[in-house]
Structures are given as structure tokens and as C-alpha cells.
Amino acid sequence: MLDNFMIEVNNLKKYFGDVKAVNGISFEVKKGEVFGLLGPNGAGKTTTIKLLLGLLEPNEGDMKVLGLDPNKNEIEIKSRLGYVSEEPLIFKSLTPKDLFNLVASIRGLDPEYVSNRAQIYLESVGALEYYEQLIATLSHGNKQKIQVIAAILHDPEILILDEPLSGLDAKSVRVIKEILELHTERGGAVLFSTHIMEIAQELCDRIGIINNGKMVGIGTIEELRSQVDQMGGNLEDIFLRLTEQDTSVNEIIKKLRKSFKKGN
Ligand SMILES: Nc1ncnc2c1ncn2[C@@H]1O[C@H](COP(=O)(O)OP(=O)(O)OP(=O)(O)O)[C@@H](O)[C@H]1O
Ligand SMILES: [Mg+2]
């Protein structure tokens, strides 16, 4: 493994019965980089992330996280990694303060340090007022902010975020972007998944476009653009073209328009 690779994935495959959720994916995430997995619903993003966390076992392929095998070194990897799942928080009967204290005790962190850090982060994303409010009563976006903060309190080397920003307002996305930048400037790496092209474009150094369990494009925006016939266009055009959705979207829209016409 080269020293600057924090994550390495080579020809990874995961099947659920007949469904080839991940079907031969390869990519690397380098030190200091924000890497985005971009793909439509069902593309295989969450499955890839769960494989990297050792929550699933692959059918085939190799992967290394911090040079370690996720299926053999799950505990060490977890201590050096922060993870935000796509599922809503499970600790709904806690307040953010309780949750951060729990994280501190599980990870063996100084409670005072954690409390200070957490409140600085909360203030920066405009959520300090919810510090002692039950998580269950918070809005979707505010729950996501709490999850992101809980995942970075221990200063992990790698942050893995599964659709973390879809419910956040523009200002909070900016702040989270800052937080991710601070993290990568200090030598950390970020892997996150999204189906939102603008978010990928704004936050990622490099993007891997996933479709039907396969990587159909990988690189910086400029590199991806040149993969699509040097035709330019915005990321949305590129994304739809690489995932072969551009014609099907047009057909769907045509059909919709037709059926609405008939309905009147
Ligand atoms: N536990 C499971 N059992 C059976 N099929 C599964 C399971 N988990 C995922 N799949 C299937 O694998 C494929 C990839 O799912 P995955 O959750 O990885 O997609 P995704 O890219 O994260 O999508 P989304 O944007 O909707 O979150 C889908 O067809 C899904 O139905
Ligand atoms: Mg998903």
C-alpha cells in the first residue's frame, strides 16, 4: 500500500441473492482528499460503505482501510474512523449533550474537551440551542448535524458519511464543508456518498460515479467532463449521461406529460 492511500478498494463485489449490489468497484481515497461516491438510488453506495466498515463481507475483491482489512481489524478501524449512517439516529431518547457524553465515554475521551468541542461545532452550524433538547424532537437537518458532530469528536483519520448533507440548509452545508476542509488540511480523508450532484461538485476533490454496482466514471469534475466526449455541460448532464439516464429521463418526462394531458 502506498502511504498516502487511506482507503483502497479493488474489484469489490457484493451480491444479495441475484442482486449484484456492488459489481467490481475499484477506487482509492488519498490522504487529504474529499472523495465522493455519486450515484442514483440503488447504485450500491451504501453497500460499498458498509463493506468498508466491516459491516458486510464481500463476495470478492480486496479492500484496505488505513492499511487494514475491515473484516479482520474492525475494532482498530472503528477507533480511527468516524461514520455517519444514512439511517436516522438511533439514540432518539437522548439529548445531543447525552449523546456526546456517551461518545466520550465509549471512545475514552476527556468529557470536558468533548463538551467544549461539541458546543463549538453546534454553534457553528446554528444548533447550540438544541444541546439539551431530545434528539427525537429535532428536525431532520438538525439530527444530521448532531450525527456529523458525534462522528468527528474523536478527531478520526477518516470520515465516512453516507448521504449526510441531503437535509441541510445552504448555510449549514457551507459550515460542514469548512469542517471537512479543516479535517483534510490536518491530513484526514473524507469519503461520502450522495445522489445530489451539486453537493458532490461543491465538496469533492474527486468523484466516483456509481451506477448498477459499477464505477462508470472517476476523477475531478474536469476529468469527468473530458470523459463525456469533451462536450462540456454541467455535472448533472455528465452524471445523467454516464449513468445512461439522460434518455430515460426524457422518456419518463414525455410519458408524464402525455398522461397528464389525457387526464384532463
Ligand atoms: N440487505 C440487503 N438485502 C438485499 N438487497 C439489498 C440489501 N442491501 C442493499 N440491497 C440492494 O442492493 C442495491 C444497492 O443498494 P444500496 O443501498 O447500496 O444503494 P445506494 O446507492 O445506497 O442507494 P440510495 O441512494 O437509495 O441510498 C439495491 O438494489 C438494494 O435493493
Ligand atoms: Mg444509500
Structural write-up:
The structure is a single chain. With 264 residues, this protein is of the alpha/beta class. It has two domains: 5-80 and 158-263, P-loop containing nucleotide triphosphate hydrolases (Rossmann fold, 3-Layer(aba) Sandwich), CATH 3.40.50; 90-155, no CATH class. The protein has helices at 45-52, 74-79, 96-107, 111-124, 140-152, 170-185, 197-203, 221-227, 235-242, 246-263; strands spanning 5-16, 19-30, 34-38, 60-65, 81-84, 158-162, 189-194, 206-211, 214-219. Strand 1 and strand 2 (19-30) form a beta hairpin. Helix 3 (96-107) crosses helix 4 (111-124). Bound molecules: adenosine-5'-triphosphate and magnesium ion (MG). The site of magnesium ion has 4 residues, from helix 1. Magnesium ion binds next to helix 1.
Q: Layout of helices and strands, plus pairs?
A:
Blueprint: E1 5-16, E2 19-30, E3 34-38, H1 45-52, E4 60-65, H2 74-79, E5 81-84, H3 96-107, H4 111-124, H5 140-152, E6 158-162, H6 170-185, E7 189-194, H7 197-203, E8 206-211, E9 214-219, H8 221-227, H9 235-242, H10 246-263
Parallel strand pairs: 3-7, 3-8, 5-6, 6-7
Antiparallel strand pairs: 1-2, 1-4, 8-9
Helix pairs in contact: 3-4
